[in-house]
Design goal:
Layout lengths: L5 H4 L6 H5 L4 E5 L4 H12 L3 E2 L2 E3 L8 E4 L2 E6 L4 H11 L4 E4 L6 H11 L3 E3 L6 H11 L3 E3 L5 H16 L8 E8 L8 H12 L10 E3 L2 H8 L9 E9 L6 E9 L2 H20 L5 E2 L1 H7 L4
Parallel strand pairs: 1-2, 1-6, 3-5, 6-7, 7-8, 8-13, 9-10
Antiparallel strand pairs: 4-5, 9-11, 11-12
């Protein structure tokens, strides 16, 4: 079966030639999901150019998704390499954004690296060690981060500084972690894992299976305090520390409603990555702390 060219996809998109001049072309994979849609809307708002093609799971193949006034053709696993290569020829400065599912992380990264498309990996999960190795060996530029919310990343950076400068400061303390996300989020939050890693350096003993993952909507409203309108998209985290004699407690908390914080951060990551690609920077793999340090965010 012949592979459709990008020019054949362009009948989907209105005013194709004009829109190419608007800004940087990005391919948002996972556009059928809420996070993917939020990124497309934020990208359009920032003047970027989402291309009319996206990869998703097999059951979404063939769908046409309408987001922010654009129509995007969704493709499943078959023929992805040829389609992506065609896109890269059509848009030489293309950057891919991945908000698919944890099981697809490594396969998708291998595809981006094989074709040579710089990418922002917002999807959590997968084999992270393998992910970094794949990118390092390919020399493709990438921003990889389990957390795209700029303010949350700044909090994470502060935690890492504290852990590095004051190792063992909370030795003997007990830790309780609660994290509430929409029911569709199956894995433990990458942010929670990163914060817990910092607490390990600070001397706290805690295993990931001790994290209280709250996914029941009734509990989220009545116990956690999540507004009902944000049950389908939120991130409420609580880290509670208590001293061995129970006389001292510390709490770190961040509550996020909606997805705009992540979508805006993702767009900043795309713009940051485009700058690094354009300058042919020596470093190839970045995270959101690198994006924060660079400044120049919207």
């Amino acid at each position: 079966m012949p592979v459709a060219s990008v020019s054949q996809f362009q009948h989907i998109e209105k005013h194709s030639t004009a829109s190419q001049s608007v800004g940087l072309p990005i391919m948002v994979n996972g556009c059928t999901g809420k996070m993917g849609k939020a990124v497309i809307e934020a990208a359009i708002s920032a003047g970027l150019h989402p291309v009319p093609v996206s990869f998703s799971c097999a059951e979404d193949s063939g769908k046409i998704v309408q987001v922010g006034g654009k129509e995007i053709q969704v493709h499943g696993h078959s023929e992805r390499e040829s389609i992506l290569a065609s896109l890269l020829r059509e848009y030489p400065n293309l950057i891919a954004v991945d908000y698919t599912v944890p099981a697809a992380v490594n396969d998708n990264a291998e595809l981006y690296c094989k074709v040579g498309v710089p990418f922002v990996m917002g999807t959590t999960g997968g084999d992270r060690e393998k992910l970094y190795k794949t990118v390092e060996e390919s020399k493709v530029y990438a921003v990889i981060s389990p957390q795209m919310g700029k303010q949350v990343v700044a909090f994470l950076a502060a935690m890492e500084i504290m852990a590095d400068q004051f190792p063992g400061a909370f030795s003997g303390y007990s830790l309780m972690v609660k994290e509430s996300h929409q029911a569709s989020k199956l894995d433990i939050s990458g942010t929670a894992k990163a914060v817990i890693s910092c607490f390990h350096k600070l001397g706290v003993s805690f295993e990931l299976d001790q994290v209280q993952q709250i996914r029941d909507p009734k509990e989220q409203v009545e116990i956690v305090g999540v507004p009902e309108k944000h049950l389908s998209g939120h991130a409420f985290h609580l880290y509670h520390l208590i001293s061995p004699d129970k006389t001292v407690t510390f709490e770190f908390q961040h509550n996020v409603c909606g997805r705009s914080i992540y979508a805006e951060g993702t767009v900043d990551a795309v713009l940051f990555l485009a700058k690094k690609v354009g300058s042919k920077a020596d470093k190839r793999i970045y995270n959101m702390i690198d994006v924060l340090r660079e400044g120049n965010m919207r």
